[in-house]
Specification:
Elements: E1 11-13, H1 22-25, H2 42-51, E2 54-59, H3 65-75, E3 83-88, H4 91-104, E4 113-117, E5 120-122, E6 129-133, H5 134-143, E7 150-155, H6 163-181, E8 188-193, H7 198-204, E9 210-213, E10 220-224, H8 232-246, E11 252-256, H9 260-274, E12 283-289, H10 295-299, E13 309-315, E14 328-333, E15 336-343, E16 348-355, H11 358-366, E17 374-378, H12 382-387, H13 402-410, H14 427-439, E18 443-446, E19 449-452, H15 454-459, H16 466-474, H17 481-491, H18 504-511, H19 520-533, H20 538-543, H21 548-567, H22 579-589, E20 594-597, E21 603-605, E22 611-614, E23 627-635, E24 639-646, H23 649-655, H24 657-661, H25 665-668
The structure holds one DNA strand.
DNA sequence: GAGCACTGC
């Protein structure tokens, strides 16, 4: 048995998972408003908030805080005549919340109530309640650090600690202070969160009071295993079938696993086992769920359970916050997650399976009690659970900070090393980011202070990693702006190349015609040109194993980047066949990611002489160019360079003479 | 000769 069901008494608790997910929780509209838990507290809540500059609002799932509070504030005239901003970590949430609130106010979406997300602005001068993504408000702040148009900033889902929310904390705190000092209209800041991190939020915002809101979450029973499980997959399998044979039909199971491959394998195993069950067992429908799964297949997880059957959903952490499935009675938590780590010394990103935090485990557990009471099986011992980290490390402590530092400098933060972060990244990580920006020519010292150069200011206008912004800004010098725009856009979305392992030979045959001996970037450029030639025809995409969805997204990104170029009055030319210009431009912007062939046939990075290899997915896999630049490193079984472009060592010397003089092997000889 | 969790501007 994977877990102990008769042993020590189950812990019964009232789960308070974060994250109201409006897109599928969707209670009926305005008729429901008055019966939400928050409505009983309206009067006292408004009285308190009216007096406060800053408040931390803790609300359980189902409290109605996200939809109701902005309306209450507006109806009470708090913040009038400014705009009330409500930020969300995800686009869908911003859009669906705005739609719902507009419906409750019985107004047209985009007028009084609106939303603003990337590629989609549904708001106007009349808009008073504005839902936006946290990243969008941050971008606005670059143009207007004091956020003049807003009178209230509500930062929702703050416990998720996205990199954007974390930077916004500092931005709104500073804006509030400065507006006060200058006698401007005050900025009210309301931080909304689930139960974790309460003290930290309050402390950060100068001891701001914490207001608790009742929620409406059903009780969930939690079971731990008696003994530590050596194989969480085996334990999960046993648990699934144990539940399946004991629980009534129509009670669905959600299982948290770590990744696509694991989920696909487990899906197959479960389906096989399910075929050999004794008679009288409910029919089992096993459904995988992960982000890269085609949308149509994701939707299957939402279909109601067939009469007399049972749905078993095998999911990544996408089901923790982004996707909510109704009717889950059982959650099986393996306690594992695949997550990214970053080490500033090597610039290496590592994607590794690791233990979840306590907060994450509670989040998973909460997915069981959304419509009625639920049960959660934790495939680890209670003792081990106690040893889990309290919180997941905030994203800002796990990332390359080059973009963040560039944004902070664009916000005219006087000293990025002492910026008021709620959770400070390591000084090494900040310094590494400054060094990168320095090499790109984005920053300079002025009167002992780090400031942006004119180039740096332009770079900050692009929603991109600084090295890509630099590529775009340099491209006119090489007469290839159109091509670089395409390449950078392709690199900033998920891969447009679809690689189903089962059809490997067909994929290779179809891809042949796009391959350029000048590397992966130019191969991608060929794909885009061919795609444009057939006007993005769907059948063509299918035949050529091109991901049409990502291609469309890429086109949107490209249009946005092109707009920014036009606003910066950049001359946009195409080099047509002269692809050397494109490679030179890439050499001048990716020079920090350069590697040289060594006499023994291996590759070493020019920066730190680290041993690296060409990723087998690269078109240059079988080739041995003397000198390459790459988009990034990926650490798996070895350290791989991804997206390669062969370059001349002289180009690198041209790009950053000081940096390369001592480093480049070919320059020494 | 490999394989990538999830967001967002």
């Amino acid at each position: 048995m994977a877990q102990d069901r008769e042993g020590p008494p189950a812990k019964r608790f009232k789960a308070a998972p974060p994250g109201t997910q409006p897109q599928s929780a969707a209670p009926p509209a305005h008729v429901q408003r008055r019966s939400l838990p928050i409505s009983g507290a309206r009067g006292p809540l408004l009285a308190r908030l009216r007096r406060l500059d800053t408040a931390i609002l803790i609300g359980e799932t189902g409290s109605g805080k996200t939809t109701q509070l902005p309306q209450y504030l507006y109806e009470a005239g708090i913040g009038h005549p400014g705009v009330i901003a409500v930020t969300q970590p995800r686009r869908v949430a911003a859009v669906t919340l705005a739609a719902r609130v507009a419906e409750e106010k019985r107004t047209e979406l985009g007028k009084l109530v609106g939303y603003t997300v990337r590629f989609d602005d549904c708001s106007c001068a009349e808009t008073r309640l504005r839902f936006l993504t946290d990243g969008m408000l941050l971008r606005e702040a670059i143009g207007d650090p004091l956020l003049h148009k807003y009178s209230v900033a509500i930062l929702d889902e703050a416990h998720e600690r996205t990199i954007h929310t974390d930077v916004l904390f500092g931005v709104v705190k500073a804006a509030q202070k400065k507006r006060k000092e200058r006698g401007l209209r005050p900025l009210k800041v309301i931080v909304m969160s689930a139960t974790m991190d309460v003290d930290m939020f309050s402390q950060y915002f100068n001891g701001a009071p914490v207001i608790y809101l009742e929620g409406r979450q059903h009780p969930i029973d939690i079971f731990y295993t008696k003994e530590r499980q050596s194989d969480y997959l085996q334990a999960a399998l046993v648990s699934i079938f144990q539940i399946h044979q004991e629980a009534p039909a129509c009670q669905d199971i959600l299982v948290f696993l770590t990744g696509q491959e694991e989920i696909e394998a487990m899906t197959k195993t479960c389906r096989d086992v399910a075929q050999h069950l004794p008679e009288g067992c409910p029919r089992m429908t096993v459904l995988p769920l992960y982000a890269s799964l085609p949308h149509s297949q994701q939707l299957r997880a939402f279909k109601p359970t067939p009469e007399g059957g049972r749905k078993v959903i095998l999911s990544t952490n996408i089901a923790e916050t982004s996707i909510t499935i109704a009717g889950i009675k059982f959650v099986v938590d393996t306690g594992m997650v695949k997550a990214k780590k970053y080490s500033p010394e090597t610039g290496l990103e590592v994607l590794a399976v690791q233990q979840v935090s306590k907060a994450q485990a509670w989040q998973r557990t909460g997915r069981a009690g959304r419509q009625e009471s639920g049960i959660c099986y934790r495939l680890y011992t209670e003792e081990d659970f106690e040893k889990f980290e309290e919180m997941t490390t905030p994203e800002i402590q796990r990332c390359n900070l080059a973009s963040v530092v560039l944004q902070l400098l664009a916000l005219k933060i006087p000293n990025v090393l002492t910026f008021d972060f709620m959770s400070k990244p390591s000084p090494d990580a900040i310094q590494a980011a400054i060094d990168q920006l320095d090499l790109l020519g984005a920053v300079t010292q002025k009167e002992g202070q780090l400031v942006l150069t004119p180039l740096g200011k332009k770079m900050a206008a692009f929603p991109l990693d600084p090295k890509f912004s630099k590529a775009i800004l340099l491209s006119p010098q090489f007469h290839c702006a159109e091509e670089i725009l395409t390449i950078v856009s392709l690199l900033s979305v998920d891969s447009v190349l679809h690689n189903p392992p089962a059809q490997r030979d067909e994929v290779q045959a179809a891809r042949k015609k796009f391959i350029s001996s000048e590397g992966d970037h130019l191969t991608l450029l060929n794909v885009y040109r061919a795609y444009k030639n057939v006007n993005g025809h769907k059948g063509w995409c299918r035949e050529n194993f091109i991901n049409g969805r990502n291609m469309k997204l890429m086109a949107e990104v490209r249009a946005q980047l092109r707009d920014i170029c036009v606003k910066l009055s950049m001359p946009l030319e195409s080099c047509r066949g002269d692809t050397a210009g494109v490679r030179r431009c890439l050499a001048h912007s990716l020079f920090m990611n350069a590697a040289e062939l060594r006499p023994d046939g291996s590759y070493g990075t020019v920066g730190s002489q680290q041993l690296v290899a060409i990723h087998p997915s690269s078109v240059l896999f079988q080739c041995k160019p003397a000198c390459v630049v790459y988009t990034g490193l990926l650490r798996t079984s070895r350290c791989y360079m991804r997206d390669l472009c062969p370059v001349d060592a002289e180009w690198l010397l041209e790009a950053a003479p000081e940096y390369f003089r001592r480093r480049l092997r070919s320059a020494k000889s």
